[in-house]
Amino acid sequence: TTPPSFKAIGVKEISLYLSGLLSRDEVEEQIIVRTRQYAKRQRTWFRNKFKTWNLLYISQMPDIDKIAKVISK
Q: For residues 9 and 34, is the Cβ–Cβ distance under 8 A?
């Protein structure tokens, strides 16, 4: 059984790099692509799971300065 940590994004790519099968640039590109694909799957899941929720943009909130102060404490 493969430990969950080996399923993390980048582990397979770094392993291929260390074994000489991929260059560093190829590894970086593949990790970027897999990260974007994962993020897209998450967005799709959330969008389908929480259809009735409204998306809020923090930058459009009236008290953004107050929120930022609270968060930074």
A: yes
- Count CA atoms within 13 Å of residue 43 on its CB side: 7
| Contact status, residue 14 vs residue 6, Cβ threshold 8 Å | no
Tokens in use for 47?
Answer: 């969008």
Residue-level length of the chain:
73
What the block records as the tokens of 57 is 């943009």
What predicted TM-score, i.e. pTM, was given to this entire model?
Answer: 0.66
Say what the pLDDT of residue 60 is.
74
CA angle 14, 21, 1 (to 5 degrees): 55
Asked whether 44 and 36 are in contact (CB, 8 A), the reply is no
